[in-house]
Amino acid sequence: MAKTIMYDIEALIKLKQGVEKMTKAIRTTYGPGGRNVIFKENGRYSISKDGSAVAENIDLQDPFENMGAQLIRQVSKQTAENAGDGTTTVAILTGQLLTEGMRLVASGSDPIKLQSGINKAHCFAVKALAEISRPVNLKEDLINIATIAVNNDVKSGKLIAEAFKTKGKETIVHVQESKGVESTIEFVEGIEIKGGFLSSNFVTDTVRNEAVLENALVLITDKRISSVEEIVPILTKIVDSSKPVLIIAKDFDTDVLDMLVANNRNYVIQCIAVKSNLAGLALNELLEDISLVTDTEVFTEEKGQDLKEIPIIQLGTVDKVVVSSTHTRIISGKDKTPRLESLISILQKRRNNNYNRAELANIETRLARLTDGVAIISIGATTETELKEKLYRVEDGIKAVKAALEEGVVAGGGMVWLHLVKHIEEVTSRDMDEQKGIAIFKRALAAPFIALGENAGIEPLPLLEKMMQASSETGYDFRNDQVVNIWKAGIIDPAKVIKVAMGNAVSVVTELLKTKVAIAI
After folding, report:
1. Which of 111-120, 294-303, 366-375 is predicted most confidently?
2. Predicted confidence band at 70 (pLDDT cuts at 50, 70, 90)?
């Protein structure tokens, strides 16, 4: 297929136009004054105020403009994956930084020197962010973080905070649709492990990119399943039971995995194949822990157990399994068995009588895995459109709370960006183009605050000037149109989200500014 090549400033202009079109659409959703966007998805119309959902549904007709738009989509998605939120923020930062950077490149500035200036200012901003962040130490902080992330839905914010209030950042949270219109939370037995599906062909939910099984059997082995013949007998029994199955093994030969994928695709048996990233003793302990939560045993080479001979009654059972590309979440739905209670008791005694740091850390990891369980948040709504939007938002809220627990919180309402501008005011360079890079980075930091003001219908520049003179405790409540004590008002953001959004924007822009050739189909 023939490809079109575009060079130098002409290529940059097209990329910039695509970035601006994507950013303009996403920016519309930002903050308390943000508006909804309507789009067609999977044959149905959806209405959303979620920046990442908007980005996922934009494709531009011009292939070079579309490159720029898709870069924004990628950087937004990457920010969500790394920090859980900040998809709209990173789009705004990227758009502002790129617009000013390309203007300078077009007027003759050296993109390498601009990159150096941007990177220099960014390094100082990251250090400043660490200095001004505060730890999360109140349940109220969690409610505020979650509520802001779920578009000020107070009830959803409280449910998310409830999920995290006892276990902190290690909490495992599962979000699902409610059978009614009310949203609820419950705590059940379950476990989450690192290691996801081995083939995307197992995926059942293409929107979330997850493979889901309900009322499933569980087969666990420390063996590498190396032949189809080895596993066919037990699969035949599972087919006869009409139940899906989760298979966790040390590894799978290609022929075995291909057979499982083919049977899954042809609706012979619904299954998911998973292997852990661990090895040795750590793998053995993990498999034992999973077997106790799912009320089965680990079929091992050491015991000489043949998978062909396993009776189906010895397999584990669970209410639900949710598998992503990186993690497997198992919801057992049952009370702790005597075997599980016994192991927990043994581990607790070992912890109390052990002074080896490495062993203590391992024991704590296992106890957390076996005792924390899973918080299930069931989301209710009156329409499918409302439900979909709420599900997006609650998942954002969960990620935002985890980010806050990991790296603390900062002033929200766009104020953190203004604080960072003040903290890096003294950053300078003797090189003219490097200094220009520093200057455009500082100006870009104010872009999120300006966008919040514009969406709230407020003239942003006079307010920006006023807030630049304010103390670190003062901020602007764009929802209620008033100056407030930002901390007492609970308008806060996770520091990690700010750091990741800033870093991702800098990364993509500095590479784009050095682009001389664009190739499109």
Report:
1. 111-120
2. very high
> Would you place residue 144 in the very low, low, confident or very high pLDDT band (cuts 50, 70, 90)?
very high
Pick from 23-27, 312-316, 349-353, 478-482: least confident: 349-353
Q: Provide mean pLDDT across the span 299-315.
A: 88
Average pLDDT over residues 464-491: 95
Region for residue 175 given its phi and psi (left: phi exceeds 0; alpha: psi -120 to 50; beta: otherwise):
beta
If you search the block for the tokens 């890096």, which residue do you land on?
Answer: 424
Report helix, strand or coil for 34: coil
User: In angstroms, rounded to a whole number, what is the distance separating the alpha carbons of residues 507 and 381?
Assistant: 39
Alpha helices in 372-475 (DSSP H): 384-407, 415-423, 432-445, 447-455, 460-468
- Domains present along the chain, CATH in parentheses: 4-134+409-520 (1.10.560.10), 135-187+373-407 (3.30.260.10), 190-334 (3.50.7.10)
What is the pLDDT at residue 361?
Answer: 80
pLDDT digits (tens, 9 = 90+) for 383-404: 888 898 899 889 889 989 999 9
Question: What is the DSSP code string of 69-105?
Answer: HHHHHHHHHHHHHHHS--HHHHHHHHHHHHHHHHHHH
Q: Are 294 and 332 in contact (CB under 8 A)?
A: yes
Q: Name the pairing type of β-strands 316-323 and 211-221.
A: antiparallel
Q: How many CA atoms lie within 13 A of 458 on its CB side?
A: 23
Q: Are 480 and 32 in contact (CB under 8 A)?
A: no
Nearest CA to 156 among 174, 190, 182? 182
Sequence-separated (6 or more) residues with CB below 8 Å from residue 39: 45, 46, 48, 54, 57, 58
Is 378 strand, coil or helix? strand
Beta strands in 270-397 (DSSP E): 271-275, 298-299, 316-323, 327-331, 374-379
CA 292 to CA 393: how far, in whole Å? 34
Percent of the chain as helix, strand, coil, to the nearest 5: 55, 20, 30
